[in-house]
Amino acid sequence: MRSTRVFDLASGLAAATGAEARIIQLPNGGYRVEAELQGDPDPRDHLTVLDVLAGADRYGHRYRAGVHTVWAELDPPSDPLQEPP
């Protein structure tokens, strides 16, 4: 089920960053998960965060006004009745 993958990603991102993860449904039926971090994250946590983000279809980072935002997106399944492996 797609929602399990989304919630697993959100849970993993929250645990890796120590911040609340937000889930946003995208217009195309996919999902975006974001977490904001105030200040500079500990360099030891980078690999943990990257490990979590690697489970997404796309991911990235934004830095604006002293806030780091890491995000990950999951595409909708190509066949709504079948979940990709």
Structure report:
This protein is α+β, with helices and mostly antiparallel strands and 85 residues long. Helix content is 28%, strand content 33%. It contains two helices and four strands, in the order αββαββ. Strands 1-2-4-3 form a four-stranded antiparallel β-sheet, with helices on one face. A hairpin with a 2-residue loop joins strand 3 and strand 4 (67-74). Helix 1 (2-17) packs antiparallel against helix 2. It starts with a helix and ends in an 11-residue tail after the last strand. 19% of the residues are buried.
Strand order of the largest sheet: 1-2-4-3
What's the shape?
globular
Alpha-carbon distance between the two ends: 10 Å
Q: Which percent range fits the helix content?
A: 25-40%
- What's the total number of strands? 4
The description of the largest β-sheet is: 4 strands, antiparallel
**Which ranges are low-confidence, i.e. pLDDT below 50, for 5 or more consecutive residues?**
none
Estimate what percentage of residues fall within beta strands. 25-35%
- On the 0-100 scale, what is the average pLDDT? 86
**Radius of gyration, CA atoms, in whole angstroms:** 13 Å
Secondary-structure content class: alpha+beta
Order of helices and strands: HEEHEE
- How many helices? The count is 2
